[in-house]
Design goal:
alpha/beta, TIM Barrel, Rossmann fold, Immunoglobulin-like, 4 domains, 5-stranded parallel beta sheet, globular, binds beta-D-glucopyranose, hydrolase, glycosidase, Glyco_hydro_3_AS, carbohydrate metabolism
Length: about 775
């Protein structure tokens, strides 16, 4: 039977009941009408299926399953393939557990290092976020399991997370905060999207028609299911009018009554309710069709995938004198409780009941390495423990190399609360300082889901950032430390020296529930680079045990239109002795622009595996997206006619190859002239320029007639005399022509009309 026929046979009460879930994790079934319940679960990085007690905060247990690296860590892989691998693996696990939808991935932009759920998000960069999320969603849905991208939108902090109001101007909203959602919707077609708890520009996302219908459905073409975040509904009827289909979790039925009453009283057109029911039943139907009843899973194999992903995501931040990889014959000190009880995942709704957690200590022992261990600190405490520190120092002294396992305890990074500072616990900083005084060959292995301050950065010889590496953390760390694998991750967020340096420092988390995104589009490296602020570790940075060189940049064309495509490519060679993967990054930098633009923006990347001595050509496609910014006058992406520098290299701060490309716009932008339009803008229009120059000549007592009758050399002299007057008039309003020359007010009005009707377009 067609879904529309099913809907025509449902009573009003039944339709209303379908609009919210059954309990925490199911859609509402209607047995009489053969409508089954569909199961959805958290699990962006590991399935969180609850069989007994249910909750959305990570309080009660879930079935045991493999915990993959956190989203923030996977993003450090800069690898679409890695994200596809997680999506596929989770898809198979979901099929084996009869789960039809995974509530993820989280795609919010990391606006501030303190964001409590930063570990659940990809990056400070919308391009990287959108590309990686698209890979994940495509792979997950390829296994027949729906993705539910979240939290839509402007949900970048935990303080006032259920009631806050994010005030974001149109350009940063689209260019930074919506861009990744736009990409994933258009590129990977997620079957569902979760609207956020917070309000966006004064309207709760769960009631925001502009967001959920005008932008999401009408402009981007989304045709899936809009689900609320758990408990995000304020007014269910307003939600339906805005475009919310399914409220989660299911409640007491009070909202059903509100819907029924609103239809009966004429406040809600039943057609709108039918639309939501159609989206819900389409989702139910697809889910049933996609279920693989005989699917099984192999958690041991998936554990090995978790190890591989952790290896691929680790970032070697520092490696003085090539201290790493370590020699297996050396006497080594493993220091820090995380070596024994690792920190490998975040807290809250994404928390996984892990299958088998590897520890670095167990891995080293299994390899029969010369390791001694000192706890160094207690991860449940903050104040330094001098006995533990002394023990660690004396062990470090007796060893050839000290490896300190440090980072943020889980209580520091969890859904529901932002961090209070960017510092690591005092007991760990003190330990690292003390050990480095005793042992210059000190390596820090870092476990964190977001940027931390590192007062000891200059004192340690090497830093290996494992992020929150999932349950394979121990083996992955060991394999990297001892050179079985070569680190290849890159930072998907900047590590500033201090919290105070971060662009949103003065406007995070806002006041009394309202947060103004005053830094505009200047988020993450877009800010640090524009301000030329030095940072501890830049966006996109990361080292390798081998060296790569870049050469032979080629482009298919150096002058293109914004409707064209072109290619840019270069050679990358492994010049060292280790097999390694290089992340090749493409950045674009516009020439002088009419609007404020970032210094440079990431526009593509790829990861290439090279044997020692091997060389490969890496190629990227250039298209409109490479050059566009969001223009709030036309309410759309726009490419300005301009020259653009395209640069390729291993990090945002090291781009050895570059070329200029001239791009011509095919989309005119209408200009609306008024008496306040600046003369500088008016002279860009040929008609405006003519009138302005005539007026300026009048200041010099040269009439149009006299000017036209003068010789070319005299005209040149007059022009030269006009130039300084024009320069000083550039920011004056157009109306000042009336006071400067003999122009009458009526002439000015005529001029404005002419400017607005004739040739008032810029490209
Ligand atoms: C979180 C969501 C999560 C949901 C269900 C909410 O508190 O914000 O990310 O998917 O709970 O657990």
């Amino acid at each position: 039977m067609q879904i529309k026929d099913v809907i025509s046979k449902l009573t009003l009460e039944e339709k209303a009941s379908l609009c919210s879930g059954q309990g925490y994790w199911h859609t509402q079934p209607i047995a009489d009408k053969k409508i089954p319940a569909i199961l959805m679960c958290d699990g962006p990085v590991g399935l969180r299926k609850q069989n007994k007690m249910e909750d959305n905060l990570g309080l009660y247990d879930s079935v045991q399953t493999v915990c993959f690296p956190s989203t923030s860590t996977l993003a450090n892989s800069f690898s679409r393939e890695s994200l596809a691998l997680v999506g596929q693996t989770l898809g198979s696990e979901c099929q084996a557990q009869n789960v039809s939808m995974l509530l993820g991935p989280g795609m919010n932009i990391k606006r501030n290092p303190l964001g409590g759920r930063n570990f659940e998000y990809y990056s400070e960069d919308p391009y990287l976020t959108g590309e990686l999320a698209s890979s994940y969603v495509t792979a997950l849905q390829g296994k027949g399991v729906a993705a539910c991208t979240k939290h839509f939108a402007g949900n970048n902090q935990e303080t006032y997370r259920m009631s806050g109001n994010s005030i974001i101007e149109e350009r940063p909203l689209h260019e930074i905060y919506l861009a990744a959602f736009e990409k994933v919707v258009k590129q990977a077609h997620p079957r569902a999207i979760m609207c956020a708890y917070n309000a966006l520009n004064g309207t709760f996302c769960s009631e925001n028609k502009s967001l959920l219908t005008d932008i999401l459905r009408d402009r981007w073409g989304f045709n899936g299911l809009v689900v609320t975040d758990w408990g995000a509904v304020k007014n269910r009827v307003k939600g339906l009018l805005a475009g919310v289909d399914l409220e989660m979790p299911g409640g007491s039925g009070a909202q059903d009554k509100n819907i029924i009453e609103a239809v009966r009283s004429g406040k809600l057109d039943e057609m709108i309710l039918d639309k939501a029911v159609l989206n819900i039943l389409t989702f139910v139907n697809q889910s049933i069709n996609n279920q693989q009843r005989d699917a099984t899973t192999n958690l041991d194999q998936d554990h090995q995938i978790a190890v591989k992903l952790a290896v691929n995501s680790a970032v070697l931040m520092k490696n003085n004198n090539n201290l790493l990889p370590l020699n297996r014959d050396k006497q080594l000190a493993f220091i820090g409780e995380f070596a024994e009880k690792p920190r490998y995942q975040g807290g809250g709704s994404s928390h996984v009941n892990s299958y088998h957690v590897d520890t670095a200590l167990n891995w080293a022992r299994s390899q029969h390495l010369n390791i001694n261990y000192a706890q160094g600190y207690d991860q449940d405490k903050i104040t330094p423990n001098s006995a533990l520190i002394e023990e660690a120092v004396s062990l470090a002294k007796k060893s050839d190399v000290a490896i300190i396992f440090a980072g943020l305890p889980e209580s520091f990074e969890s859904e529901g609360a932002d961090r209070q500072s960017m510092a690591m616990p005092e007991n760990q900083d003190a330990l690292i300082m003390a050990v480095t005084e005793a042992q210059p060959n000190t390596v820090v292995v870092l476990h964190t889901g977001s940027a931390v301050e590192m007062p000891w950065q200059n004192n340690v010889a090497a830093i290996l950032n494992m992020g929150l590496a999932g349950e394979g953390v121990g083996s992955a760390t060991g394999k990297l430390l001892f050179g079985e694998n070569n680190p290849s991750g890159r930072l998907s967020e900047t590590y500033p020296y201090h919290l105070e340096d971060s662009p949103s420092f003065l406007n995070f988390p806002g006041e009394e529930g309202t947060v103004h995104y005053r830094e505009n589009i200047f988020v993450g490296y877009r800010y640090y680079d524009k301000k030329k602020l030095s940072v501890a570790f830049p966006f996109g940075s990361g080292l390798s045990y081998t060296n790569f060189t870049y050469s032979n940049l080629q482009t298919s064309s150096t002058t293109i239109k914004d409707t064209d495509q072109a290619t840019i490519s270069c050679l990358v060679k492994n010049e060292g002795n280790y097999t390694g993967q290089e992340v090749v990054q493409l950045y674009v930098e516009p020439g002088e622009s009419a609007v404020l633009r970032p210094q440079r923006e990431l526009k593509n990347f790829t990861k290439v595996l090279l044997q020692p001595g091997e060389c490969k050509r890496v190629s990227f496609t250039l298209d409109k997206e490479t050059f566009a910014y969001y223009n709030d006058q036309i309410h759309n992406w726009h490419v300005e006619s301009n020259s653009y520098t395209l640069s390729i290299g291993p990090t945002s701060h090291n781009l050895p190859l570059s070329v200029n490309i001239q791009v011509t716009s095919t989309v005119p932008i209408p200009i609306h002239y008024t008496s306040f339009t600046a003369i500088g803008k008016v002279v860009k229009n040929p008609l405006g320029k003519k009138v302005v120059l005539e007026t300026l000549r009048e200041v010099l007592h040269v009439t149009s007639k006299q000017y036209q009758e003068s010789s070319t050399s005299d005209q040149k002299k007059i022009d030269q005399q006009c130039e300084p007057i024009l320069q000083s008039a550039l920011t004056m309003p157009l109306s000042s022509l009336v006071s400067l020359g003999s122009m009458k007010s009526s002439d000015l009005s005529q001029l404005i009309t002419n400017l607005n009707t004739k040739s008032s377009l810029k490209k």
